[in-house]
Each structure stands twice: as C-alpha cells, then as structure tokens.
Design brief:
Elements lengths: L7 H12 L3 H11 L10 H6 L4 H25 L8 H23 L1 H7 L10 H9 L6 H31 L1 E2 L4 H4 L8 E2 L13 H19 L1
Antiparallel strand pairs: 1-2
Length: 227
C-alpha cells in the first residue's frame, strides 16, 4: 500500500498547527497579557496623537484591526513561498497595499473622519504592531491561527485606543462619541452623549501631555490588577 503524499507546505502547516498556542491563549495574550498598547507599548504615536475623541480612536482602531487581520492571513498563506532573505520587504509591500485599500475606502465612505485622522491612516504601514505580528507569528503559523492572533491583537489595541479616547474626550469636552456620524453615518447621531456641561473644560486632556498622563494611569491600573 502506497503512503499518502504531502507537500512541504502541508507538512510545514501541520507542524505549525501542532506547535501553535491554543485559541484561548492567543485571546488572553492579545487582549490582556501581551496587549500591544499597554504591555508591548507598540504603536504609541497614533495611539497618543488621534485619541482626542472616542470617534477618532474608534476609526483608527477599526482601520488598524482590518489591516492586522488581513496582513496576518495573507502572510501566513504565502509564508512557504517567500525566501527568508527578502521576507521583510515583501511583508511591508503586502501591508502597504492593504493600508492603501483602507485609506481609499475611508476617503470614499467616511471622508470627514478621513480628514480628521489625516496622516495617521497611511502611517499604519509603519505601525510596529503589524510588522511585528507578521514577522513573529504569522510567518510561522497556520492561516487560522494567524488570523485569530491578528484579530485578538487588533481588539486589544482597539480597546486601549477607545478607553484612552473616551477618557480624554470626557475630561476635555464632557461628551462621548462626538462626531460619531462621520464614521457610522447620520443614523448614529443618537450615540453622542453630553455627559456634563461646564464652562471650563479640562483642556490638558485634549493635548499630548494629557494623553501621556492618562496612558500612564491606564498602564498603572493594568499592573495593579495583575498584582
């Protein structure tokens, strides 16, 4: 009886699947233990720059999440055919292509938010989270595990963005999700909340120094919970 034939790609895929962490562990790593925003401290530039409102934070979080899941999946899919010596340039080309697609889609469907986020949309290409996960995980694991890892890491990063954006907007303006219609459409205007009215808002929260301070408090809270 002849033995079943398997390709090198199938053998590598099976080996990667056997050594990959469980989905539960990937979820814990992405959302909490190894959160890219508050543990790895990656992607801090857009994290601090665009989180002056919860809407901006949500817009950038969704764009980054889409690129992260798609890039992890594509890189895992082609990893057996990419020479190791030129893998990084190829990964960057794939990520840049995906970011361009997201940028064009936002330009077409969420133009006001596209203008508000500005240069930080194309700068997703240089986000250390995306290239880091491509190199350290997606290039060594199966498509399913790579996509799930991208989803969990993206959600973990999105949670930090949203928490920081909501905190800053609440302190600086007394509102939550102001301008949400620029992301979700006119139907979502009911989601804008006026939490309190004040003639003197805490403007420091809207400025970069305020973002650093609130980010520090979030990291301190995470460390306190872990202990």
């Amino acid at each position: 009886m002849s033995e079943p034939l398997t390709s090198p790609a199938d053998t590598e895929s099976n080996a990667a699947a056997n050594t990959a962490p469980s989905y539960k562990e990937l979820m814990l790593q992405g959302l909490w233990k190894n959160n890219p925003g508050i543990v790895q401290l990656l992607g801090l530039c857009p994290l601090l720059a665009v989180t002056n409102t919860a809407t901006n934070a949500l817009g950038l979080a969704l764009a980054t999440l889409c690129v992260l899941v798609a890039s992890n999946s594509l890189i895992s899919l082609i990893r057996a055919h990419v020479p190791k010596a030129i893998r990084i340039p190829i990964f960057v080309m794939i990520i840049a292509s995906l970011v361009t697609c997201v940028q064009l889609l936002m330009n077409a469907f969420t133009y006001e938010l596209y203008l508000s986020l500005g240069i930080f949309i194309p700068l997703i290409v240089t986000n250390c989270i995306i290239i880091g996960r491509a190199e350290s995980f997606a290039s060594k694991n199966s498509v399913k595990h790579a996509a799930f890892d991208g989803l969990m890491m993206g959600l973990g990063f999105a949670a930090v963005l949203l928490l920081l954006g909501a905190s800053r907007e609440l302190l600086a303006q007394g509102t939550l999700f102001d301008g949400i219609e620029t992301l979700l459409g006119e139907w979502a205007t009911f989601m804008t909340l006026q939490v309190y009215h004040s003639d003197s808002h805490f403007l420091l929260a809207a400025l970069p120094p305020g973002a650093f301070m609130i980010m520090g408090l979030i990291i301190a809270l995470k460390n306190f919970i872990d202990k």
